[in-house]
Structures are given as C-alpha cells and as structure tokens.
Amino acid sequence: MSYLGIDLGTSGLRALLVDDAGRVLGSAERAYPVAHPHPGWSEQDPAAWILALDEVMAELAARVPGFASLRGIGVAGHMHGACLLDGDGAVLRPCILWNDTRAHAEAAALDSAPQVRDLSGNIVFPGFTAPKLVWVRAHEPGIFARTARVLLPAAFLNHHLTGEAVADMSDSAGTSWLDVGARDWSGMLLDASGMDRAQMPRLVEGSESAGLLRKSLLEKWGLTGPVTVAGGAGDNAAAACGIGALRDGEGFVSLGTSGVLLAARDGYAPAPETALHTFCHAVPGRWYQMGVMLSATDSLNWLSGITGRKPADLAALAGTVPGPGRVRFLPYLSGERTPHNDAAVRGSFTGLGHDTGVAELARAVLEGVAYGLRDTAEALKGTGADLQSLFAIGGGAASRDWVSIIATVLNLPLKLPEGREFGAALGAARLAICAATEATAEEVMTAPATAEVVEPLRDLVAAYDDGYAAFRAAYPAIRGVQ
Fold this sequence. Notes:
Shape: globular
Site (Important for activity): 7
Number of helices: 17
Helix content: 25-40%
EC number: 2.7.1.17
Number of domains: 2
Structural class: alpha/beta
Function: Catalyzes the phosphorylation of D-xylulose to D-xylulose 5-phosphate.
Keywords: ATP-binding, Carbohydrate metabolism, Kinase, Nucleotide-binding, Transferase, Xylose metabolism
Oligomer: single chain
CATH topology of the largest domain: Nucleotidyltransferase, domain 5
GO molecular function: ATP binding; D-xylulokinase activity
CATH architecture of the largest domain: 2-Layer Sandwich
Distance between the termini: 58 Å
Strand content: 15-25%
C-alpha cells in the first residue's frame, strides 16, 4: 500500500508518495504565483492549488508504480490563510495569505480585547485568520455577507478531496478562533470578530480520518479505493511529525527564509507575552511552541545582494573570522515577531570600523541570526520547556559553521539529519498512514538517522553569552532612534 503527503506551500505544491514503512516511492511538485495587488497584500487563487494537485497526481500515476495502491492522503498547508466560500462552496475571493499585513489595525484591536489572548493562547498577529475576516467585513461587506464558510488552505484541499468542510487542530490553532487549550472553537473568540461556529469546519485531530476521497477523484486519478484523507496539519506541525518531534522538548531549528525554533510540548503552557506561538500539535493530547524570526537566511540573502557574493560563499567566508565578533547585526530587516512583535523595527550593524570587511559583516549576520534564535530558546525555557534534542534543518543548515555558531549560542548540541526527506510532506504522509491504518503516532513518526551531532564550542560559550546580552540590550537602543 502507498500513502501520499501533500505539502501545500506558498510558492508551490509538493507531493510525496511513501510505502507502509515510510520509504519514499516518488515525488512531484508544481509552482504557482503569489499576487501582491497592493503594498502589504499577499493573495493566491485556490484554483491554482487544484490545478497543481491534478498535475502532480497525473505525474505520479504515470511514473510511480506504487501510486495505484494509494490508501491514504494527508495535507499539510501554510497556515493562517483565509479561503472564503459561499453557500454552494464557490470561492468568493482570492485567499488572503499568512504574510498579508493589511489587517494590522484589526489585529491590534482583537489582541487588546478581553480574554482573547487567554483563550487563544497567542498574540493576535496581523497574519492570523481572524483579523483578516474583520478586515473583509469592513472593506468588502458584500463578500462578508455571502461568506458561509471560512477554510484554511489545507482545509480547502481537504474539502476538495472529501467534499466535507473539515480541519485539523494544529492548523486551526493559528486562526485566533480556537480555544487552544480545550482544542475546540471558542464562541467568545468567534463573536469577537463577527463570526459564528456554523462558518467553521468540523474539527478532527491531524492523525484521524477527515473522510474518504470522493468517487469522482478516484475515477479521475485511476484509483480503486477506498482512500482515507487524514485531518492533516499546519506546515510546522507536519514538519515536527516528519522529524519525529512528539515528546516534550523534542524539536528543530529551521534555517529557512525565516527562522523557526520549535519544541513539542506534552502540556499546554501558553506565553503570549513572549510572542511565542502555542499551537495544538497534529496528534492528540500534545501541543507545540515555536518562535519565529522573520529574516534568517533572508538576512544572508540580503547581504549577498549588496555584496555580489553568493550566500554559501558568504557563509564560508564568515567561518574564517574568529567569533564572537565585535561587529553586531540586528536581523530585523522586515520587523520581528518573536520576542518583540514589532513590525516597525529595522535591522542595523554596530561596531563597524576601518578594519571591517565583508567577512566580518557575514560573521555578524550569522551570529545575529543565532542570537535571534536564542531569544526563542530563552522564552521556551521560561515556559518550562527542556530543550535537549533538536535537529537543524533548512537551507541554512548546509553551513556547518552556522550550525556550530547556533549550537554554541544556544549551548545545545544540534543534530544534522541523514537524507533529505524529513519535512512537511513526509509528516503529512505519516498522518495519512495513521489515519488509514490506525497505527499510533509513536509507531510511525520516528526521528531520522543522525548524520552528525554538532556540539557547542565549550571554550566560546561564555563569550557568546556576553554577546547575547549585548544583542538583547541593543534592541531598545536601536528602536529608540528609528
């Protein structure tokens, strides 16, 4: 039997087919555009997702023998998006994406409302779903009046696959409508943004069945069925399933365009004042917490753009400079989320001198991102998280020097996974296995083999502690002059 994991990303859809043991049988992907009709707006036509899905399914059917034995599908999606459907299930407008900031005023108003943080466990960020609907109500009242259902991107694909409006807990936790501790929609949170429960999808755990694949799609894709569709997950929860982060303190550092430090939690311990996200995990009875910094490898990409050197070359050049360096970089190129929740702050270099060259700037960028990740680690420790087993993943993890700096700044060993299949698509496929076979998450969601453990440089830990203290002190000083 085979199982399909779908990673519905912002810029493209990737499908990963695995067998009963989780071994990869094949994959396919398609890209699609993002529209930015106004500054701060970010939208996508859900029809592009359906087209991409049809194309990858046709490709897998044509070239992967195991496709015909498909028995389960799981969908992981980018979180916080707002897909608005009318009473007939027709899409009313383009999906407003996670990185759309038009609803910043609405988010601030919701965030200050009584009990909103207490029930949702989180700050209401402009990218979350609830403030988007408040914006639609104010600026597109005709569309708001016709909105019979609001679905997140992954739930929209679930609806396409099953014909049912169903969503999982991990994705729904990022709407500001879910009581994250109780794992259910909150009437009070819905009322605060003018919504009601009838407009919400049915909730299931990510590893449970959301329904069966529709007969028309079975025929279209040449399948005999039945095919179980799992509840699925938000992208980071799916990545945690793919890396095997289920137990308290297990997690990963992701060095992508943005930076994420995520830890699984056995219990619910929200800390919205730290700008940590506290969300339901994709498996029952567990949660996860994560901090997000907006510019991780994007900081290196920015330096690449102004120096004309490739990011990988800059990372290698940074390794030739001893650290911690005198030059300090604050990686707030587009504001910052954790721990400052500050969209207005911008980045800076300090400590520049006549002897400062590209290597010193590159070193400062790597260290600045590491210090930003430590902000999240400190916030997690404050909630009782015991960070003991973290993988380093994402494009930036290809730089061993960068991983070494982060390990030293965090004073934690970081594991580099073996192979390349351990992300959201694999996590979604694992959820499909659980939903279709009733296997437990512990049986299916194991950690990948470790290629290498990068230990902290013990003789530099104290110096980096001092560097982090200076980094923390720099934020209010820089903020005060911007």
